[in-house]
Every structure is written in structure tokens, then in C-alpha cells.
Amino acid sequence: MTLDSNWFEAYSRNLNSNKSLDYIERSTFLNTVKPFDASDYTQGRLLAFISSLLRPKTILEIGTFSGYATVCMCEGLASDGKVKTIECNEDLKDLIDHHISYAGFTDQVEVIIGSALEMIDMITEEIDMVFIDANKREYNDYYEKVLPKVRSGGVIIADNVLWKGEVWQEDKSKIASSLDNFNDRVAKDNRVKSFILPHRDGLLMITKN
């Protein structure tokens, strides 16, 4: 039996990443005001799994926070792949860089500080995978900007789309109303297929036709 060398590379990445996630989680709780904004372990494993299936060359992450999800998605990258991650909070840059470096993915990650709606326009590469976890009121705008850049068969994942169950309530907050509108818009979009995975606060899973 012959094992593909790419398998060993992916396995090594997975081990390296898993050893780092506990540290990144602890560091996030020590160094941020809202540590629960980071992905948890099971969500991180899901992102890593999808990335490993796609073997993406380009991943776009909108909303880095502390870099936990970033590290998870790095596990499945193609050998020449890159994660471009956009964070609007400049104060988080040093923490993000530290976490990415600790996990051993410095060469695979480009951290972009600025407004996502502006930074997305500067990305010219075809995108294989997108993870959206930023300003909830701008989800519709992120979606419309990234979809033309995503390849056919590419995946978009949007976090927090159930917003603590408020999207089902008649008396919604402004954020819940915005997310409800986004969910409905994607469901009716014939350019994609989608479903909501009710994990944590809801993940909208989208694949481009």
C-alpha cells in the first residue's frame, strides 16, 4: 500500500493546528473583551473539515477576531494556498499575528486590516471558500461582493444567522431583522444552493452553482 505524500502533509498540519488551538482559546479569553465571539472547537473542526474537502487555493475570511477559525481553515489549504483574512479592529493585529505564528501558518495567512466592504474589492483571485463572521448588518453586502469572485462549486459559510433564535420572533432586533433578510435572500437566490446548520448560533452553508 502506497500513501500519498499529500496525506502526510495534511496530517501534519492537522496535528500542528490542534496543538495550537487550546493555546489560542486560552489567549483569546485572556486578551479580548468578548472571547465567546471566537469559533469554538466543534465549529473550528467543521471549518477545517470543509477546507480539507475543498483543498482551497484561496480562502477569504471576513472577520478575523483572534484567528481561531483562521488557523482551523489553514489545515485544508492546497500546498500553495493562502487565507486572506480581513479584520476591521486594528487593535487585534498583534494578537492575530501572534496566534497565526504560534500555529505555524504565518506564510499561509495574509492579515488585512480595514473595512471589509472596501478590502473585498481589492481581491482579484478566484476564491474557493469564504467564512463570514463580521458586522451582521452588512452580510447582504459582503455576500453580493464575494459571490462573483467565488468559483463554481465554491463554498460560503456565514456565522450567527439565527441570532439567538431572534430571527424567528415577530419582535426582532435590528440585527436579527437584517440576518433574517439575509437568510431569505440567499434561500431565494438561484445562483446558489444553501441550508442552515443549527450549530451554536446558526451557520448558513452556501455553495455556488
Structure description:
The structure is a single chain. The longest helix has 27 residues, at 5-31. Helix 1 runs antiparallel to helix 4 and helix 2 (41-54) packs parallel to helix 3 (68-74). Strands 3-2-1-4-5-7-6 form a 7-stranded mixed sheet, with helices on both faces. The mean pLDDT is 91. By secondary structure, it is of the alpha/beta class. The chain has helices at 5-31, 41-54, 68-74, 93-103, 116-119, 139-146, 174-187, and strands at 58-62, 82-87, 109-113, 127-132, 150-159, 192-197, 203-208. The protein is globular and about 45 Å long.
What topology does this entry show?
Elements: H1 5-31, H2 41-54, E1 58-62, H3 68-74, E2 82-87, H4 93-103, E3 109-113, H5 116-119, E4 127-132, H6 139-146, E5 150-159, H7 174-187, E6 192-197, E7 203-208
Parallel strand pairs: 1-2, 1-4, 2-3, 4-5
Antiparallel strand pairs: 5-7, 6-7
Helix pairs in contact: 1-3, 1-4, 2-3
